[in-house]
Each structure stands twice: as C-alpha cells, then as structure tokens.
C-alpha cells in the first residue's frame, strides 16, 4: 500500500532543510508500507494508491514520548486537589497507586494503559515508552512489564520507584537487583531508578543500574526532580541514555550532561501538576546539553498524555523557542530512546507523522489547548 500526503505547507523533517527543524515548504511525502519512500516538492510526487490532502497544514514527525508510567489502576484526583490547596508533592502517593495496581486484574491494567496510549495517539504521539513501578513485588512488576510489552517495544523496569511499605530498604534493593530483575528483564529494554530525596540514594541506584546493565538492559534515571543529588552525575557516569526531570541541577550536573551522550529529558507536566518551579531548559540548551520533552504521564505527578500541552508549557514557562520544543518532543525523544528510525522524516524512516490543522509548528505553542492534530500516521497507517 502506498499513500501520498500532498499540499504540505510546512514540513518539519529534523533532517535536511532550514534551521533546527530542517523545515521545507510546499512539499509532498510518499509512504510505502510502514516507511517514508519519497519527499519532494508538491505536485511532483510519484503516483500512490491513496492521497491525503494536508490543505497547506504543517506535517511533523510523530511525537516520541520517552517517559510515561501507564501501568496503574485508579487515580489520585483528591491528592491533586489537596496540592492545589497548598500541600506539597513528596512522591508519597506512589504507595496509594501501588495498592490499587496490585488489586487490579490484568485486564483492568491493560485496558487502562491501552486507553492512555490511544489518548496519546490522538494527540500525535507515535512512539511511547512505558515503565513499571506501581507493582513493586516480583510478580506485580513482571506482569506490569508483560502487559506493557503488548503496547510498546520501549518498556522500562522501574522496580526501584520507592521502597514499598513493610520492606527494609537494603533488602528491597537486593530483591530488585536479583530476583525481580531476573523476572522483569525478559520483558524490558530499559532499567530505571528514582534516584532522589525520599526514594533511592546514589549507592542504591548504582547497584540496581549496574545489575540491569549486566542483564543487557540499557539505562535511564529519574534524577534531581525533588532536590539536587547524585542522580544526574550517576546517569552520565554509567552512560545512561537519559536523565529525566533535571529540575534541581548544580553547575557540575550541567557540565556533566553537556560533555556526555546522556539526554536531559524535561517533564514540564510534572512541574505544572505539582505546582513546582520548572527546570531551566535555557541553561541546559545554552550549555550544549541535548534535551527531550516527555509527558511523565502518571496518576500522581503528571496526569497528561498530551505532548502538545508539554510543548506549550516548555515554550511559555521554560523559555524554549517553539522550534526547540518541537525538536525536543520529536528528535529529542528519539535520542533519549536511542532510536534513529523515528523522530525525523526522511526516506527510509518509519512513516510515523502528524498532519496539523494549522500552517506551522509554531501553532502548537501559540494555540495551547486547541486540538490541532488532524491526522496521525503510525507505521504508515492513518489512525
Ligand atoms: O516521574 N518521580 C517519580 N515518579 C513519578 C511520579 C509517580 C507518582 O507520583 O505516582 C514521576 O513524577
Ligand atoms: Fe516519571
């Protein structure tokens, strides 16, 4: 099956073209099967079986949401309400979701996660990472990842989210790096640790991450969300693909990221929903750090699946330019997942893209909260 998307007003390639986004104007894109086959001036496209008229709208790579926690049951709307009335966010509510998740059936967990994947897809997300972390027992973490695996190839073992109630911290770390890792590794591509105040310290995080690496997992770290600490530098030292959150950074943290292959993944939905100061994206970008944007979708700190919302927040409140934010939400996310087949539009790349009901990428931040995603192609198939 082939398909042409014609009459593209602005094409964001993140490849060859103008500026950071590799912009090209008045284009057409031809898709064959699940891949991009051809990109060129509109009106010159080879014949195809089907045609989509972009009507002068912008076409972008599908968003790559490299950080989401979708295997859970219940929600924490009351906790959100209390926060908006002045209570601080501590991460303590994670245990509430753990209890609800353990009590839920496989079917309930899968239906809830599939609902959120579909919700994200309607908002232009074509690649999504899904973490465990609300099971926190060998059986519940393994089933979380087994279910996540049916929805995405980007699965992350986050048994080290918090120490569950009734466990000694050292015993729990030994469990995570031993029996739980063995049970979860077959369903996981990544291992992650919440290395932060009130969660796991640097030594504990190092022990778990290195055990994951020995089992062939690649690394990512929840780092420096709640306070400065060792998380970011540990991520860089161990060659993690990404350090996520990066809200409280010392100059040494920024320098370490700038000299590394570790992406700083910023999650403005979390600061929005916890009413916390945003990470300083400008400081990171100006220092040469590579940045991704992701939703952190979870029922506690950031219950949004919307990448356009995160782009708008990043532009308005993190002083990113619209081009930087769109790049971070597409090519940045791909880099954070070490993928080169998504996040950019060029022949041979996956045919994952969105058509906007707007003439340029600027509108994603300029028209916040407006449903501008007109068409989504995933694996070359209109959704
Ligand atoms: O990334 N910070 C740790 N984990 C999640 C929050 C989880 C929750 O509050 O349920 C996060 O923000
Ligand atoms: Fe998270």
Automatic annotation (TrEMBL):
Binding site for N-formimidoyl-L-glutamate: 134, 298, 300
Lineage, opening ranks: Bacteria, Bacillati, Actinomycetota, Actinomycetes, Micromonosporales
Domain Amidohydrolase-related: 59-361
Cofactor note: Binds 1 zinc or iron ion per subunit.
NCBIfam families according to UniProt: hutI (TIGR01224)
HAMAP family xrefs: HutI (MF_00372)
Swiss-Prot/TrEMBL catalytic activity: 4-imidazolone-5-propanoate + H2O = N-formimidoyl-L-glutamate
Keywords, in A-Z order: Cytoplasm, Histidine metabolism, Hydrolase, Iron, Metal-binding, Zinc
Family: Belongs to the metallo-dependent hydrolases superfamily. HutI family.
Keyword Transmembrane helix listed: no
Residues the entry annotates as binding Zn(2+): 67, 69, 222, 296
Swiss-Prot/TrEMBL cofactor(s): Zn(2+); Fe(3+)
Residues the entry annotates as binding 4-imidazolone-5-propanoate: 76, 134, 161, 225, 301
Function: Catalyzes the hydrolytic cleavage of the carbon-nitrogen bond in imidazolone-5-propanoate to yield N-formimidoyl-L-glutamate. It is the third step in the universal histidine degradation pathway.
Subcellular location: Cytoplasm
EC number: 3.5.2.7
Name used for this protein in its record: Imidazolonepropionase
Positions bound to Fe(3+): 67, 69, 222, 296
Pathways per UniProt: Amino-acid degradation; L-histidine degradation into L-glutamate; N-formimidoyl-L-glutamate from L-histidine: step 3/3
């Amino acid at each position: 099956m082939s398909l042409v998307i014609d009459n593209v007003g602005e094409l964001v390639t993140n490849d060859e073209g103008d500026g950071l986004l590799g912009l090209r104007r008045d284009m057409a894109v031809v898709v064959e099967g699940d891949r991009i086959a051809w990109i060129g001036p509109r009106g010159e496209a080879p014949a195809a079986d089907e045609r989509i008229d972009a009507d002068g709208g912008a076409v972008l790579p599908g968003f790559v949401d490299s950080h989401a926690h979708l295997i859970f049951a219940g929600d924490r709307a009351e906790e959100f309400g209390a926060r908006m009335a002045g209570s601080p966010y501590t991460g303590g509510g994670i245990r509430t979701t753990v209890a609800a998740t353990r009590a839920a059936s496989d079917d309930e967990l899968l239906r809830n996660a599939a609902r959120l994947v579909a919700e994200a897809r309607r908002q232009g997300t074509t690649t999504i990472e899904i973490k465990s972390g609300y099971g926190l027992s060998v059986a519940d973490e393994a089933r979380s990842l087994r279910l996540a695996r049916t929805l995405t190839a980007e699965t992350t073992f986050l048994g080290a989210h918090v120490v569950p109630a009734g466990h000694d911290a050292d015993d729990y770390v030994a469990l995570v790096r031993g029996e739980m890792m063995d049970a979860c590794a077959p369903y996981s591509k990544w291992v992650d640790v919440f290395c932060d105040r009130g969660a796991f310290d640097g030594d504990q995080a190092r022990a778990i991450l290195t055990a994951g690496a020995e089992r062939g997992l690649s690394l990512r770290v929840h780092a420096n969300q709640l306070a400065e600490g060792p998380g970011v530098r540990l991520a860089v030292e161990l060659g993690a693909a990404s350090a996520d959150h990066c809200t409280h950074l010392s100059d040494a943290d920024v320098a370490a990221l700038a000299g590394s292959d570790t992406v700083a993944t910023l999650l403005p939905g979390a600061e929005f929903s916890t009413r916390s100061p945003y990470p300083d994206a400008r400081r990171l970008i100006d220092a040469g750090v590579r940045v991704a944007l992701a939703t952190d979708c979870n029922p506690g700190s950031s219950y949004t699946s919307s990448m356009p919302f995160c782009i708008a927040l990043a532009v308005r409140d993190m002083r990113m330019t619209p081009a930087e934010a769109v790049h971070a939400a597409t090519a940045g996310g791909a880099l954070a997942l070490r993928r080169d087949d998504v996040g950019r539009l060029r022949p041979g790349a996956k045919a994952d893209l969105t058509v906007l009901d707007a003439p340029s990428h600027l509108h994603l931040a300029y028209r916040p909260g407006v449903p501008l995603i007109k068409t989504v192609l995933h694996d070359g198939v209109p959704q």
